[in-house]
Amino acid sequence: MIDERELAIxxxxxxxxxxxxxxxxxIRSLTASLFGIAAGILGLESYPGFLFYLFGTLVVxxxxxxxxxxxxxxxxxxSQLSGLWAQDVFGGLSSFVLxxxxxxxxxxx
Length: 109
What we know:
The chain has helices at residues 4-9, 14-42, 46-68, 80-86, 93-108. It is mostly helical.
């Protein structure tokens, strides 16, 4: 938990948090579509396709945590769990399924 002294030194600005959330949402939507394209081209079906999406989402979250947040997501998000790891996981699922079925149909037809 962040104490009062830490908040005085590094305040959490709601506009910045909102911007960071929007950027993360855009990254997740784009990567969900890219994972759908890859799953369709690879010909994944059923559970392996969804596991591919979940694994890819975890990799993207780890990359955001390590590269963009430099290992300190509490500086950029209010909550580390909901802000970085769990946000928009199911929102990107529809983009994933849409591109997955499209490219699966294109490749397999």
